[in-house]
Write a structure and sequence with these properties.
The chain has 14 helices and no strands. By secondary structure, it is mostly helical. It folds into 2 domains: 121 residues, Serine Threonine Protein Phosphatase 5, Tetratricopeptide repeat (Alpha Horseshoe), CATH 1.25.40.10; 85 residues, Serine Threonine Protein Phosphatase 5, Tetratricopeptide repeat (Alpha Horseshoe).
Length: 266
């Protein structure tokens, strides 16, 4: 269901990487993350590992910049570059932790939108299929929503909004999966609650037509044909050409006697 965030994140590395020319005296020639070095040399070593796609080592070296030189300008950039390196290494929990630490220390920094974006896409990349728990999915929605609320005009907001739509569709899919499970077990009330949640809270997702049809089924099974008729009518008005409406219409035609019962004999 996902559109990969990785190409955009890769393209944005230039926005968070400080120029190295004239700042570092020389390139680091060995993997010495625990050896005390001047800040320029240490940052250069981290950037070199990042360029070589040695993402875990790059992240460790960027962390070392922050540890050895916590009050330097480089430390601030190293925090964000470390988060980015963890993201590329697919170590999403550490990417989130690093970006959150950056925001805690530098909440008003000009790179704050990018830190929020890294948090959002790190959650997004961990979304699992609808048969599993969707806690991460909700966290992705919350994080991406935070970015769009705080920085609606940032260069990352448009991509975040796209992903929010996809995440909401995924959450609606989970509700549908649970609702269908209840239907199969004959638990019609529990099923109707799930389908109604999709209709009311995920109105722009692709699952609404099926949810309305499933509501029609559930209400008929619960013995409330008037509610079933309302669901079918909403489906017909908004999605008249779909197979879901055709199925709902057929169901209502088959249950006309429930809507208009014959008068009791005197």
């Amino acid at each position: 269901m996902r559109i990969s965030a990785r190409p955009l994140a890769l393209a944005l590395i230039a926005l968070v990487a400080l120029p190295l020319a004239g700042c570092a005296g020389k390139k680091a020639k060995g993997d010495l993350p625990y050896v005390a070095r001047d800040v320029g040399t240490l940052y250069s070593a981290a950037k070199e590992r990042l360029d070589k796609r040695q993402y875990k080592l790059a992240a460790a070296l960027f962390d070392e910049v922050e540890r050895q030189h916590p009050y330097s300008v480089w430390a601030r950039r190293a925090q964000l570059m470390g988060a980015f390196s963890y993201y590329l290494a697919k170590d999403y929990p550490k990417a989130i932790e690093s970006a959150q630490r950056f925001l805690a220390v530098h909440p008003g920094n000009r790179d704050a939108p990018y830190a929020y974006y890294l948090i959002g896409i790190s959650y997004y990349e961990q979304i699992s299929d609808v048969t599993r728990d969707q806690k991460i999915t909700q966290q992705a929605l919350d994080a991406l929503g935070e970015l769009t609320r705080r920085y609606p005009n940032s260069r990352y907001a448009a991509d975040a909004r796209l992903k929010i739509d996809l995440v909401r569709d995924h959450l609606a899919g989970k509700e549908m999966e649970v609702g269908r499970f209840y239907q199969k077990r004959g638990q019609w009330l529990a099923a109707s609650i799930r389908f109604r949640n999709v209709v009311e809270n995920y109105q722009t997702t692709t699952h609404v037509p099926e949810a309305l049809m499933r509501l029609t089924e559930s209400y008929l099974a619960l013995g409330v044909p008037q509610e079933a008729q309302k669901s079918a009518a909403v489906l017909g008005v908004n999605y008249p050409g779909t197979d879901w409406y055709a199925r709902a219409y057929k169901l209502m035609q088959e249950n006309q006697d429930k809507l208009h019962p014959a008068p009791a004999a005197k």
